[in-house]
Amino acid sequence: MRPGPGRFRVPEAHEEHWTGIPAPDRKQDMPATPTPLLDASGLPAGPADIRLIVTDMDGTLLDDAKRISDGLWPMLAELRRRGVLFSPASGRQYATLFRQFEEVAEGMVFIAENGTYVVRDGVELSSDPLDRSVAAGVARAARRLVADGADVGAVVCGKRAAYVERTDEAFLAEVRKYYVEHRIVEDVTAVDDEMIKVALFDFGSAEHTTAPALAEFAATHQVVVSGEHWVDVMNRTADKGTALRGLQRALGITPAQTMVFGDYLNDLEMLDAAEWSFAMAGAHPEVIRRARHLAPSNNDDGVLRTVARVLDLPYDGVRA
């Protein structure tokens, strides 16, 4: 059953804090080229010992129309029966992810805001708050871009909601896709919330226009191009890979027991944290280079088809 809209719980406390655990200095050894999924020589025979499946959302689990395949819900029930944890990992906020998975959210770990905020059953597992002065600096940089003629808007991401100053419908329509809990305010840096990330939406090219304009922050913080139109600024210690490695340690799950899917630059670190790393067909070239395997595209149920093959599960495709 497809989850419907509903209320989400904002975590009020955490039992364990994973933030600040550095990733290894050395990247795992990668094959010269990823192994295509349909090349049987690249995958072992029989079901693999997978305990954790982590997938990006946009361009990966979701099709280009931002839809979740109907085939996911019975597959999640079977994964739960087998004791396999399924975890969405996205630049989207926790409230948005929870709404998408509300009816199956029990026990699920949500890696939200590109790893800066991790929640399970309404309990905060980790977060990496961003200093207000940095958030203010990024907001000023966005205003300079606008003054120079760029079509850019800033979203300051807090634990409770996302905050924007720009009020035109074109911008708000993009914000609503990723931040269902958002508020229009006069000053995004003066809100009463704990900030964890600043995202800039560029109606042009985020990689070629907005990201270079944030070079002053790159020396001390992460400036991550998370999509064609989005750039995220976060603490240096925050990314999806750091969140995933913390989850693996907490649950006693190894990289060999972890399957990861991604398509864009904000997925690179979590691909490094799993031996079963898959780039989607059509992914960013650097993602394809870093992944061990290639999966079918997001419009061809690539995540579901890959999970079904590797774990020897039935697959009833709903998209050609």
From TrEMBL:
Pfam families noted in UniProt: Hydrolase_3
A GO MF label: hydrolase activity
Basic and acidic residues composition bias: residue spans: 9-29
Keyword Glycoprotein: no
Region of interest: Disordered: 1-42
UniProt keyword annotations, A-Z: Hydrolase
Protein name: Hydrolase
Species of provenance: Streptomyces canarius
